[in-house]
Design goal:
The chain contains 16 helices and 18 strands. By secondary structure, the protein is of the alpha/beta class.
């Protein structure tokens, strides 16, 4: 019913738009589909089971909610607008340029911004009438001239163009066809009208997935004469339908997303052991035992992987970039060099004791000793606290050769303050970490928490230096400077770098 009503409306309406009468703005949400149908004698029937005119009317009624316009074309004098009765395939010529000139007039009759899509049905055989081209210069090829002018017009028109090729793809008329088996000039037309969206790669991808997307759309279709409306109907519906990102999602799901996962996996495996800003290098030190560290040498990590970046342990100091040595407190606390003549026996008994043993002895005497022992311990503790920490440090750090002038009792009092003062114990008894770096900027210094250090091409901050670990002390170095290509390790956020390296922890135990 709809095709018949549409045909009557097309025949009985006022003067066709594009012939001087403006077209009304289309109502509803659907686009305007402008059909350009080849009316030359060479075009096969649109459907082998239907009369020509009936097949055309059915095609115009395939998609409801759209506005269909019709241009039947042959030569310049064989054009008609919105008149299905003129569809007889009796045109003597086939001139695409003048057909699109007529389409240009119809497009101009609609308000700016109207969604207009042009659908060209043809067998792609160019046969312009020489009389329609009086400006053709002598020696110029008419077909070539016609194609060039048509392409220029389509670039100016700027409306989407879809081409439905009706005919035998193996015929001589389409020799030299591309993957879509369409003549080269058809591809030139769709590229001129649709721009980059009609690039060969985009057309190949859209054809492979058999769908129209937001960016990847199919513009050239092939319909064999024996397929007829059965193939034309879904094609017209696809052209008229709103673009959907289905093909892009398929490409992303089939190709891009797996490729991203593969690249991330490869990057993760390759940079799994790479150091990055914020990572921590941890190693344990024994008192007096040098630890030689190299930078960027191939080594096996504690988790079994191989790494060629960061720090690693080496046995030969000639291969090292730095050497760390943990040294104990170099302070003599047994009282050597003192003149102990006249020293009270109770004080003399405390003089050679280690600070921890000395503290225990005084606490025991205070808590459970005899009356005399309590009085002695309390007096000694009182006198020790009366001494300033600076004076206690000066007395305790005097070399044995200079202690002869120091009263032995003052040394005992300073030693008692050391036993009970955490500050003084930290200052005098804490092991010292010494580092020697090699190379052009060789240095030798003592490290403390917060100090900066450079080993090889890496910059570090000493995060921790604490007793314990698997040996006497544990050193934690924080990567402060990690050189990288184009500064990526500085630009890319630390958390993202950690994810890419497939590591849950920032710690890198030096091995």
């Amino acid at each position: 019913m709809l095709p018949a009503l549409l045909a009557l409306a097309l025949q009985a309406g006022p003067a066709p738009p594009g012939e001087g009468v403006p077209s009304p703005a289309p109502q509803g949400q659907g686009p305007v589909i402008l059909f350009l149908v080849d009316n030359s004698a060479s075009l096969p029937p649109l459907d082998p089971t239907e009369q020509r005119r009936v097949a055309l009317q059915k095609m115009l009624g395939f998609v409801e909610g759209t506005h269909q316009r019709l241009i039947l074309f042959g030569g310049q004098r064989e054009l008609s607008v919105d008149d299905t009765s003129r569809y007889r395939n009796d045109g003597q010529w086939t001139d695409f340029y003048h057909a699109f000139r007529k389409a240009e007039g119809i497009v101009a009759s609609y308000p700016a911004g109207t969604d207009i899509r042009i659908v060209l049905l043809t067998d792609a055989i160019i046969d312009p009438d020489p009389e329609d081209w009086p400006d053709l210069r002598a020696g110029d090829d008419l077909v070539t001239h016609n194609i060039r002018r048509t392409v220029e017009l389509l670039q100016k028109l700027g409306k989407p163009l879809y081409v439905i090729l009706v005919g035998d793809p193996t015929s001589e008329s389409v020799a030299g066809a591309d993957r879509e088996q369409s003549p080269g000039f058809v591809l030139e037309m769709v590229r001129a009208a649709n721009g980059a969206a009609a690039a060969p790669l985009a057309q190949t991808m859209a054809s492979f997935f058999d769908d129209d997307g937001m960016l990847l759309r199919k513009f050239v279709y092939r319909v064999r004469p024996d397929e007829g409306l059965e193939k034309i109907e879904p094609t017209v519906r696809r052209i008229a339908a709103p673009p959907r990102p289905k093909v892009e999602m398929r490409i992303f799901g089939y190709f891009i997303f797996p490729l991203i996962l593969l690249l991330l996996a490869l990057v993760g495996l390759l940079v799994h052991t790479f150091p990055g800003p914020g990572d921590l290098e941890i190693f344990d030190l024994g008192l007096g035992q040098p630890v030689h560290v190299a930078a960027d040498q191939l080594h096996r990590t504690r988790d079994g992987a191989w790494a060629a970046q960061g720090l690693s342990l080496v046995k030969d100091p000639r291969e090292a970039a730095a050497t760390f040595v943990l040294r104990g407190a170099e302070i003599e606390l047994t009282g050597a060099g003192l003149d102990t003549t006249g020293l009270d026996p109770a004080d003399a008994a405390l003089l050679p004791l280690e600070p921890d043993v000395l503290r225990t002895a005084i606490e025991t005497a205070t808590d459970s000793g005899t009356r005399e022992e309590k009085i002695h311990a309390l007096n000694l503790d009182y006198m020790a606290k009366s001494m300033s920490s600076e004076e206690a440090e000066r007395i305790l750090t005097l070399p044995p050769s200079e202690r002869a002038l120091v009263p032995a009792l003052d040394f005992v009092r300073a030693k008692v303050q050391l036993a009970f003062s955490d500050f003084l114990r930290e200052r005098l008894l804490r092991p010292k970490l010494q580092v020697s770096t090699y190379g052009r900027d060789a240095t030798r210094c003592e490290l403390q928490a917060g100090a900066r250090l450079r080993v090889g091409r890496y910059g570090f901050v000493v995060r921790e230096l604490q007793p314990g670990g698997r040996r006497d002390a544990r050193v934690v170095l924080h990567y402060d400077r990690v050189p990288s290509l184009l500064g990526l390790k500085t630009i890319v956020p630390d958390r993202l770098q950690q994810v890419l390296r497939f590591r849950r922890s920032r710690q890198r135990a030096v091995s």
